[in-house]
Write a structure and sequence with these properties.
The chain has 307 residues and is an alpha+beta fold. Helices cover 34% and strands 26% of the residues. A hairpin with a 7-residue loop joins strand 16 and strand 17. The protein starts with a strand and ends with a helix. The mean pLDDT is 97.
Length: 307
């Protein structure tokens, strides 16, 4: 199965016409050229060419939506289709992504007591109480940065993404809501993240008067790590070396991709795609020569797997 997403990020803020596929030398400019219309094009060409050659089994193209948000497209595909192996053709500068981080979202709601601003004896300021949590969260982030490092992914991280609270200037706020994002490594999940957050929240509650909270766990996406010694990985690395004339470079990513959904479904998967720059940026481009390299690698890999 070859996977690529059709959705892009916003057209707003692009420098020039984001939908004009302008070519300068080896570079094709435009929104989505790098992330990842180039990968979608490579998938279609490689599959079309491989399909004309003798092969066993099915070549499945998963051209999906929603990867830039919650990946409902790939999740839907995997509810209906299986494969013996998969390549996600996200841009990777012709390197092989062997691992990437996951993430967990959570809302920490600090509870106060709404009252008129003239009555500090009756009101409890949820926003002020939330300050204790923000300081502790920053300390947790520092501890994570100093923890043992994954060879490809580095260390986990956590930060406060959004904060809201209060109704009006003349009242004590009843609650303060802090949205937290925790970037996870293999071995971490929503349960371990909840434990970390509850540990610091309970410690604050034990020393700060009138500190109360609710913890609401949200979306979780698993981290991903491929098997370096699997036959599929070894075949992919060999074919990349044959096509490029150089040993394949392996790397990890700090961001999340659809690879994790395939791994969670028990499907061996790797990420490999074109070279370029400007994903989510004001100017975006892809190297056309690198797209041709991706096509050749994918075509040979399909025929190798389906030999």
């Amino acid at each position: 199965m070859l996977n690529g997403h059709l959705d892009t990020v916003t057209l707003a803020g692009y420098d020039g016409d984001p939908l004009d596929p302008r070519i300068e030398g080896d570079r094709l400019f435009g929104r989505g050229s790098f992330d990842m219309k180039s990968g979608v094009a490579a998938i279609m060409i490689a599959a079309a060419e491989a399909a004309t050659r003798p092969h066993r089994g099915d070549i499945i193209l998963a051209l999906v939506a929603d990867e830039e948000y919650a990946s409902e497209g790939t999740a839907e595909v995997l509810r209906s289709f299986r494969s013996d192996a998969a390549i996600v053709v996200e841009p990777s500068d012709l390197q092989v992504t062997m691992a990437h981080k996951g993430f967990v979202w959570a809302d920490v709601v600090i509870e106060g007591r709404a009252w008129h601003g003239s009555r500090p004896d009756l009101g409890i300021d949820a926003i002020a109480k939330a300050g204790h949590f923000l300081v502790a969260l920053d300390a947790l982030a520092s501890d994570l940065a100093a923890a043992p490092s994954h060879p490809l992914l580095g260390t986990p991280s956590v930060h406060a993404s959004m904060i809201s609270g209060g109704e009006e200037l003349s009242s004590y706020p009843a609650e303060c809501r802090i949205a937290v994002e925790y970037r996870t490594l293999p071995g971490q999940n929503a349960e371990t993240v909840e434990q970390d957050l509850r540990q610091i929240l309970d410690a604050i509650a034990g020393r700060v008067p009138d500190f109360a909270y609710r913890l609401e766990m949200g979306l979780e996406r698993s981290p991903f790590q491929a098997d370096r010694e699997s036959g599929f990985t070894q075949s992919t690395l060999r074919i990349i070396e044959e096509v490029t004339g150089a040993p394949a470079v392996m790397r990890g990513e700090p961001f999340w991709t659809d690879c994790a959904l395939y791994a969670d479904a028990g499907i061996p998967v790797l990420l490999f795609g074109a070279a370029g720059d400007g994903a989510h940026a004001a100017t975006e481009w892809v190297s056309l020569a690198s797209v041709e390299t991706v096509v050749e690698v994918l075509k040979r890999l399909i025929l190798d797997i389906c030999a």
